[in-house]
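Q: Got a minute? One more chain.
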Amino acid sequence: MAPRWHERAGENAGAGRGDGTPSPARPRLMVPPMRDAVQARGLTHLCVWANQKGAKDKAVEIGAYAGEGTVILANHFKEVTSVDPWINGYDGGDVASFQAPMKWVFNAWKKRTEAFPNIRCSRTTSKDAAVHFEDGSLDFVYVDGDHRHEAVVADLNLYLPKLKKGGVMAGHDLSFNSVQMALRDVFGEKTEFTVFEGDSWGLVV
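A: Always. Here it is, folded:
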């Protein structure tokens, strides 16, 4: 599937070629949105629910992309750490892996989150970032990175010990078979998750 770019005409128009002739306008390549209004609303409801369960302080977001979810988390938790290596090509089946250069995506994340002093980022893999969080130190973890089965299992197993007793493990894309399989493998067949519109889920652990 070929990448799809959003263009804004007129960017850099009239810069000139050095001979007095205006340069043709060059399009500005934009990062396509990854979270629609329904997904944003569902994540907001998940955060409110988690706050009501007592999870209010430290949150970790695994997979931040352009920061649309990051700012929602920042409005509900005292401290948010976004964990993402911002590297293309990690999964050929996930449009987020290839639809825009990750350099642009990371710049979009920085721009979107710059007004939030309670947001920081760990630009590395979830595995490498995990060692920087003490066991029992986190209130909330949102898994929305690599959606392949083995990757989701790894993220859940890595970050479950990092949660406080009564903390909330949560994530996105519950409709993906790979995510459903990973949740069954880690939590068992009979575990009941709280489900929110837009494909988010949560579990008090």
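A: The longest helix spans residues 37-52.
Q: Perfect, thanks.
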